[in-house]
Design brief:
binds zinc ion; alpha/beta; six-stranded mixed β-sheet; 21% strand; single chain; Aminopeptidase
Length: 228
């Protein structure tokens, strides 16, 4: 499975700019978080980004990259502007496959649910538009507009933990859509034989009854207890 991540804007096109934030930097961060999360947690895919750094690319170049590579899925990440609030996603407003609609559904739900862990986020809906990257790409393609850079939404966009969570939500959405296999979790390591173990003893008594009384107290508090 081939995934291509499109970081909106870049180079001499910063995208929307407000509140000390640049859209091109935010889309870079969100995509990098998405790619790292996929790499760490899933197998059976290849991924690329339309720009690894701060290159300037036309919309057609981005779509062509995805088409020439034969990507299975195209995700374009953007930040909104215009003093509104909330999250929305787009697919092409011409003929789209049911797969494209499915990709929009899974991504939209995954990302919105994650964003709402940070506060009230308006759902602006699953929309359709005649955007070049959506029109010119041949595979299921979705564009996400992740809050508004020039409204009160900016407080979330200034929070690195939020950007990371949003990136990871993009990754989970794509993984669900493609049915990627999760990597087995690393099991806790065996203790090396020379490792020290520290024991805690809570009482020593001549009369066994006193020991039993203390053991009973500890058990009531939830401590595993043995009398030696
Ligand atoms: Zn944009």
């Amino acid at each position: 499975m081939k995934i291509i991540w499109d970081k909106g804007h870049g180079g001499n096109d910063p995208g929307a700019v407000a509140n000390g934030l640049q859209e091109k930097q935010l889309t870079h961060k969100i995509v990098e978080y998405a790619m790292s999360y996929l790499e760490e947690n899933y197998t059976g895919f290849e991924q690329r980004t339309t720009r690894t750094g701060d290159q300037t690319l036309t919309l057609s170049q981005r779509a062509k990259m995805a088409n020439d590579w034969g990507a299975d899925v195209f995700i374009s990440v953007h930040i909104n502007a215009g003093k509104g609030t909330g999250f929305e996603t787009y697919v092409y407003n011409g003929g789209v496959s049911s797969r494209t609609v499915a990709l929009q559904n899974v991504l939209h739900n995954e990302i919105l649910t994650t964003m709402r862990q940070f506060g009230n986020i308006t759902d602006r809906g699953k929309k359709r538009a005649n955007y070049a990257v959506l029109r010119e790409t041949k595979m299921p393609a979705v564009l996400t507009e992740n809050l508004f850079i020039d409204s009160n939404d900016a407080k979330h966009l200034q929070n690195e933990a939020f950007l990371k969570a949003v990136g990871e939500a993009h990754a989970r959405g794509v993984a669900k859509f493609l049915g990627l296999r999760e990597k087995p979790k690393v099991q806790s390591q065996q203790k090396p034989s020379d490792e020290k173990l520290y024991h805690v003893q809570v009482g020593a008594f001549r009369d066994r009854k006193n020991a039993e009384r203390l053991a009973e107290d500890l058990q009531k508090k939830g401590y595993p207890t043995i009398i030696v």
